[in-house]
Amino acid sequence: MADALIQDFLTGAEYTVGLIGNPSPGFTVLPPLQNDYGALDPGLPPILTYGSKADPDSPYWEKLRFRRAEIDDVKWSQLVDQSVRLFRRLGLRDYARIDFREGEDGQPRLLDVNTNPTWYWDGKLALMAEWAGYPYHELLRLILEAAVARYGLEPSP
């Protein structure tokens, strides 16, 4: 007998929280990102597929967009609190992206923990950092500084 996991498909908005840093001394929390499936063919499931990331022939390739999420302070605070808690409990280091998707009841549920999200200049982490006022090279600097601090090293001048 094989084990199986069966769960409802979450149909609501999909959010990403970006964290840079470590539990001590703390995190830089990047502005929230929302996946925008509005330009997809209505017959396609609204999911972030492999094709949307790596296959120019995919119907998702040019249709999927990312935008700054417009959520209220309460929901944002809950997402950040849950993300920080997960970061600590999973023993993550230096940076991570935590993805959530709302159910029909409007409550966000954990979708994915990206312990090593891409550093692409046009990826989600870089986009959120840009919204926070950190150009790409500053995002890389923040990640490296988090690692340096975690190891207790002195940064070079």
Automatic annotation (TrEMBL):
Q: Which Pfam families match?
A: Dala_Dala_lig_C
Q: Cite the SUPFAM superfamilies for this sequence.
A: Glutathione synthetase ATP-binding domain-like
Against Gene3D superfamilies, the record matches this protein to: ATP-grasp fold, B domain
- Transmembrane domains' residue ranges: none
Query: Where is the D-alanine--D-alanine ligase C-terminal domain positioned along the sequence?
Result: 5-144
- Name of this chain's protein: D-alanine--D-alanine ligase C-terminal domain-containing protein
Lineage runs: Bacteria, Pseudomonadati, Pseudomonadota, Gammaproteobacteria, Oceanospirillales
